[in-house]
Amino acid sequence: MYIIVGLGNFDRKYDNTRHNIGFMTIDKLAEQEHIDVLEKKHKAVIGKGIVAGEKCILAKPTTFMNLSGECVRELVDYYKVDETSELIVISDDVSLAVGQLRIRKKGSAGGHNGLKNIIAHLGHDQFIRIKMGVGEKPKGWDLADYVLGRFSGPEQRTMEEAAERAADAIRMIITRDADAAMNAFNSVKKVPAEED
């Protein structure tokens, strides 16, 4: 069984913000796999279903971003998964170009408060994460204001495509492994945003 957690802030005012790309990806995967993510438990809204032939729990934490670890800890303990190989966390990343994916099997939080809290609650950083590029904050901007801001029209389309690629990456992690997905999806080239 896999637990797939998309990070975000669970409040309508945060819908479609850069920080909520994890939620957007869970919604995309749920739509593709016909999984209803509606059940409230383990400090999350979850959905149970089959992804790439394996039982999966899709989860969107209802804690705020910086307390995401509380939800992940509860899910991992309750479903007794191996968090080093059966937990996949999706988060935004300001050090990657808009739409770029970076899959990792371990590593620091890189300044991301949601990942930082998950690492603190698990007691290690050995879990699969899919980092979704939301672009670097403009000079002079406050980081919080930037990640809680919304994408431009062209960026929004790029991120919707990125969410589809992330869903494909999740299926590859399940059917093959994280290394195969890293080889297929970790790309340094920037994804061009279409012009209006």
**Secondary-structure arrangement, i.e. CATH architecture:** 3-Layer(aba) Sandwich
What do the pLDDT scores average to? 91
What is the overall shape?
Answer: globular
The portion of residues forming beta strands comes to 15-25%
Treating each run of at least 4 consecutive H or I residues as one helix, how many helices?
6
Order of helices and strands: EHEEEHEEHEHHH
What this model shows, in words?
The protein is an alpha/beta fold and 196 residues long. The chain has a single domain, classed as Peptidyl-tRNA hydrolase (Rossmann fold, 3-Layer(aba) Sandwich), CATH 3.40.50.1470. Helix content is 36%, strand content 21%. It has a seven-stranded mixed beta sheet with strand order 2-3-4-1-5-7-6, with helices on both faces. A hairpin with a 2-residue loop joins strand 2 (39-41) and strand 3 (44-51). Helix 1 (21-33) packs across helix 5 (153-175) and helix 2 (68-79) crosses helix 3 (113-122). The longest helix is centred in the last third of the chain and has 23 residues, at 153-175.
List its salient traits.
6 helices; 7 strands; alpha/beta; Rossmann fold; single chain; 196 residues; 7-stranded mixed beta sheet
Question: In short, what is this structure?
Answer:
The protein is an alpha/beta fold and 196 residues long. The chain is built from 6 helices and 7 strands. β3 and β4 form a beta hairpin.
List the helices and strands and how they pair.
Layout: E1 2-6, H1 21-33, E2 39-41, E3 44-51, E4 54-61, H2 68-79, E5 87-93, E6 101-104, H3 113-122, E7 128-133, H4 143-147, H5 153-175, H6 178-185
Parallel strand pairs: 1-4, 1-5, 5-7
Antiparallel strand pairs: 2-3, 3-4, 6-7
